[in-house]
Design goal:
Blueprint (H helix, E strand, L loop, with lengths): L8 E2 L10 H15 L3 E2 L5 E2 L6 E3 H17 L13 H5 L8 H7 L7 E8 L4 H10 L1 H8 L5 E8 L7 E9 L1
Parallel strand pairs: 1-4, 4-6
Antiparallel strand pairs: 2-3, 5-7, 6-7
């Protein structure tokens, strides 16, 4: 069973995006379509439509890194696996897994005012995963938070893993 956890680009990074141009467009359209509507985020409250988010390659690379780690370590957590597929933990020589803050900063998104993360696993397409996040109060409040101005999102598939598809969505404002 799956679990939840107009196109503008900003903050391009020195390294190329690990998310394809096609995926970037599809992901951003799904996110901004949800943000364009009033959303009932359950226990987190009702959120009025929020301004569209801009794509940020640094956040997308952090999202890709975490999705890749979850898929290849067959884990599902906001904390990195701490294994060889947890790039940030390896670079920082940590004995435990990386945090989303560490992954975001490691990928060059620094001097931020706000950051957040949503993860999910088992969903087959962007519209379905965004709908699942909207149906989950905390994930919904992240997605609808008007303080966030930028986003990066990634999906990594791994045949033979528990969920097959692993999603990460990183939010920020600088």
């Amino acid at each position: 069973m799956p679990e939840a956890s107009s196109v503008r680009t900003t903050g391009s990074s020195a390294q190329p995006s690990k998310v394809s141009e096609t995926d970037r467009i599809v992901f951003l359209e799904a996110i901004n379509a949800a943000r364009a509507q009033t959303q009932d985020c359950g226990s987190e409250g009702i959120f009025e439509p929020a301004p569209p988010l801009s794509w940020n390659d640094r956040l997308a690379n952090a999202a890709y890194e975490h999705s890749y780690d979850m898929a290849n370590s067959d884990t599902f957590s906001h904390e990195g696996s701490g294994t060889e597929t947890d790039e940030t933990a390896q670079t920082l020589d940590k004995e435990e897994g990386s945090t989303f803050r560490e992954r975001i900063e490691h990928n060059g998104y620094r001097f931020w005012k706000w950051i957040g993360e949503n993860i999910a696993a088992g969903y087959s397409d962007p519209d379905t995963v965004v709908a699942a996040w909207i149906a989950s109060p905390h994930h919904c409040s992240n997605l609808m938070n008007p303080d966030f101005t930028e986003v990066g999102m990634a999906r990594v598939d791994k045949a033979g893993s528990h969920y097959r598809s692993y999603w990460s969505q990183e939010f920020g404002a600088q």
